[in-house]
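Before relying on records like the one below, remember that each one covers exactly one chain. Contacts with other chains, cofactors or solvent are not represented anywhere in the record.
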Amino acid sequence: MLAILRNRTYRHLFAAQVIALLGTGLMTVALGLLAYDLAGADAGAVLGTALAIKMVAYVGLAPVAQAFTDRLPRRPLLVGLDLIRGAVALGLPFVSEIWQIYLLIFVLQAASAAFTPTFQATIPDILPDENDYTRALSLSRLAYDLESLVSPMLAAALLSIISFHSLFAGTVVGFLVSAALVLSVRLPGPQVGPQSGPRRGVWDRTTRGMRIYLATPRLRGLLAINLAVAAAGSMVIVNTVVLVKAGFGLAEPQVALALAAFGAGSMIAALALPSVLDRLSDRPVMLAGAAVLVIGTAAGVAAMGSYAALLALWLVLGLGYSTAQTPSGRLLRRSAHAPDRPAVFAAQFALSHACWLICYPLAGYLGATAGMGPAFMAMSLIGAAGLGLAWRLWPQGDPDDIGHDHAGLPAGHPHLVAHGANGRHHHPLVIDDLHRQWPVWRAS
């Protein structure tokens, strides 16, 4: 897996991702503690609302930002967005009112809504080989797990000598170092010229990724899996601080340790996935991960009895979380031509976070009003609905070489000539200007 780090450009980008996420992880711990400091036992509801605002920024702005930035030079764009995020994080230690948390989180995540899809869409251009890209996805998943594992451990150590307000400084440093590392390499530019297709209007560019995504069966299945992931993940992210501090009467370091257990499970799965995906296709692996999340969330009712049981459950949920999510980049890459990849990654970013937008406030509200037991059961049922939809929407075998024809194309059209037929023909298919709908396919 580590062999791909010989690629200097990818190595620097991966380091930038790791360092920025370490800083973001410190912010996640500090934000939870800040919410508890301001709201006490209602911290879950406050944090759930803050994270819902984050999701609103992601869902509403990611496709629009991509439409306006898809032809801008990637390196200055990513550096500028890192600097904006660092500047906003600088203001978080001075928050004294709950509404200030909401405002700063929106501005910070608006910049992330433009940064993350652009960053993700750059990696397949740097690593065009499928095996290299699969390993890059696992390394990327490990980087995200550092936010859940190393950051809480680092936060626990720092909290013994400093106040949690000082943890926000780590977020600022992370964004600044990330910007410096991106600046140190040359990135492939956005697709322009003959290979990029016609120049499109803003509305077309804004909606193109969504249209490709929602017309592709495997990506509709991915959206349903995103719902199962969000249902389980929201219980961990929103309610850990309440379960540990209000439920078990423990201190801040134990909050960090619980989040680290979740990250450890996710990291174990990410390390194992490259070899698993060499032998199995994406569909059964991702469905199995979603099933673990559904069962594990239901088991949360039993885990409320002891802190040790909670740690074990969070570890299992981390395993399912990474297994269900990590291969998603492979699906997105297979499902779009290179010029359309940024739009499709932006659609995944927005639609997956729409699922979190539903689940974050629901997990916080149910935990605060109905209790943690009903919250666990409700989120498990939502996850089960997502798993069932994914099973239904994503065909077994995941075919993309499907017989189809083009009734509106004239005989002799270059596409028909290229595939050796003026009528029905086969080729690996993605949604584009010539294929606006997925052909009907039935297993033989």
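Confidence is low (pLDDT under 50) at residues 192-196.
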